[in-house]
Amino acid sequence: MRHIISILLENEAGALSRVSGLFSARGYNIESLTVAPTEDATLSRMTIVTTGSDEVIEQITKQLNKLIDVVKVVDLSDGDHIERELMLVKVRATGKEREEMKRMADIFRGRIIDVTDKDYTIELTGTGSKLDAFLKAIDASAILETVRTGASGIGRGERVLRV
Amino acid sequence: MGPITGAEIVVRCLQEEGVEYVFGYPGGAVLFIYDELFKQDKVKHVLVRHEQGAVHAADGYSRSTDKVGVSLVTSGPGVTNAVTGIATAYMDSIPQVIITGQVPTHAIGQDAFQECDTVGITRPCVKHNFLVKDVNDIASTMKKAFYIAATGRPGPVVVDIPKDVSNQKAEFKYPATISMRSYNPVSKGHSGQIKKAIQILAGAKRPMIYTGGGVILGQAASELTELVRMLGFPCTNTLMGLGGYPATDSQFVGMLGMHGTYEANMAMQHCDVLLAIGARFDDRVIGNPKHFFEEPRTIIHVDIDPSSISKRVKVDVPIVGDVRAVLRDFIHQMETGKLRTDRDALKSWWTQIEQWRGRDCLKYDHGGALIKPQFVIEKLYEVTKGDAFVTSDVGQHQMWAAQFYKFTKPRRWINSGGLGTMGFGLPAAMGVQLAHPKAAVACVTGEASIQMCIQELSTCKQYRLPIKIVNLNNKYMGMVRQWQEFFHGNRYAESYMDALPDFVRLAEAYGHVGMKVEKTADVEPALREAFSRKKDLVFIDVVTDQTENVFPMVPGGKGLSEMILV
């Protein structure tokens, strides 16, 4: 099962490696991991997408809680939540393809953020599956480069993760 | 008073924490700290001969006292040598603070002389670690280090201090208390869960109590003893839990696990209600978890660490809390609730257990000219009247010591259970002897293990530590040889120790007393003589039967009831 786990941790040198080290040492999967400071500069917010049985996910959250730098852990998949991922795609855009790329970007509500006479760079936000769908929808051979941030997540409504 | 150096702050912090001994080895990056240790006499320094020995000695000191063990090593190789000791303490949850020197801050990352990434190297084997880059942070970091090491599930904490930071100045103020938003260990167990657990215990037909190192670390041996007697249930201890319940009591069914007793393993496998306290169901304890679950049972698990619960086996009633506080709640609730257990069921369960016990699974052949290692431990138990501190290394001798020395008090049995570190026994015994100068301290070891930290015989001489080393010498890495005999077609690949030293002369060369024992009849007199030498370290080299194996044995991957018996 896929789970999306949110972590509030002390914004200190080495905190990230404590988390990533835990996952590699105990053989847990990481599909994606994003981290950045929050509005409180002493705290970082991390989102990890992982897979595992219920037992494994229970251990992951317990082991994360055990890390001294970790302040709070929430499995967002336990309830309603929103997740978004940002992707930048550089595509070949010449001749007939140029108009087609523009059209596909519009359909997926993407934005072209950099233009040359040969290529476009498209910015796309959404769930991971939407980004996957976009990559499938365009001509694969036109893709020059992709970069994805991994998912960030937040609880719906009054569900709040803070100190 | 004005500002003082970081080095002096470190030493002042140790004084504030009431640290009696620091085990260490000097080097470039810690010279300022050593200079400050030199200028005072509150904190005593013990100079080891290898940094692994320092951390093991601090470990033995801690295990035998419930105080935080402290060691001090230099950067680079000082740290890497200490890592085995740190990992040993981590696996057995021993509270320690390890102060490590680091190259100056401006040199970090430059591949400087004796530089290593201490925080990176130790991260997977510490409870937490710190790199202190600002002299103003030393005092609060030291406070945190001692707090984290000793509270919750204890463990080692590394404080890495660059050389320049130890020479900069700051005002010293040791915080009286500390609170951390990200670290709040629990203490009280959930009373509703405890109530539920008691109801389950009351209805149990074939109950079993299984306890581990958590009872020792949590200072809960007397509460455990009271609870077990109130319930009238059988009790087993893990290797780490020995001494948590008196081994001489009739309700004690022996150690369980890979080399546990027949009765303990059978009762563990066939019980209907299992109360696990401060134990973690590890692979050496329950064997194959699938086989373990072939028999249905209700499991109640008390542990201070939530991640120990439902890690290897699914638990029905988890109780997270300090073991002593939880056991007190158990006792209190049982007293006020006037608990009644199922006496008839219990009677027939005990009949069954006595039948298993009648199998006498630890029996061995005393006869013959060759000295049996088990016999040596039995005599050690008699000669020391069961009241010695016993440290061990790792292997067959460790298992025999665990099986045949009947520990009746906690913190008397000191061994590396989790990491299984050969070389642990002698340096650990140094820490124990320093903590208990008048006590009898025995280090049960083998000719392979003892050579892994043999250099500490020199430390023992310097500090006049009258440890009694009982070397069960079978000229084999016995446990390796046993596995090769059982599972590798008697092919004894590299398990034979050729070219062994003459241990008697080796001990003498270090300034100690050496004895060699080659006959069964000489074992007891030799032990008596050794222990009567109150001021001497005596190295007793006992030539034992080379073919002896440790029984019972649950082979790796097998279930608890699939023991190999004699």
Descriptive report:
The complex is a heterodimer of chains A (163) and B (566). Chain A has 163 residues and is of the alpha+beta class. Chain A is built from 4 helices and 9 strands; from the N terminus they run βαββαββαββαββ. Chain A has helices at residues 15-25, 54-66, 96-107, 128-137, and strands at residues 2-10, 32-37, 43-51, 70-75, 81-92, 111-115, 119-126, 143-148, 152-155. The longest helix of chain A is centred in the middle third of the chain and has 13 residues, at 54-66. Chain A is elongated, with a radius of gyration of 19 Å. Chain B is built from 22 helices and 20 strands. In chain B, 57% of the residues are buried. Helix content of chain B is 37%, strand content 16%. Chain B has a 6-stranded parallel β-sheet with strand order 3-2-4-5-7-6, with helices on both faces. In chain B, strands 11-10-9-12-13-14 form a 6-stranded parallel β-sheet, with helices on both faces. A 6-stranded parallel β-sheet of chain B has the order 16-15-17-18-20-19, with helices on both faces. The termini of chain B are far apart. With 566 residues, chain B is an alpha/beta fold. Chains A and B meet through α1 and α2 of A and loops of B.
Give a concise summary:
Chain A is of the alpha+beta class. Chain A has four helices and nine strands; from the N terminus they run βαββαββαββαββ. In chain A, a hairpin with a 3-residue loop joins strand 6 and strand 7 (119-126).
Question: What Rg of chain B do the Cα atoms give?
Answer: 24 Å
Give start-end ranges of low-pLDDT stretches of chain B.
Answer: none
| Total beta strands of chain B | 20
- The helicity of chain B comes to 25-40%
Distance from first to last alpha carbon of chain A: 28 Å
Largest sheet of chain A: 5 strands, antiparallel
Biggest β-sheet strands, sense, barrel of chain B: 6 strands, parallel
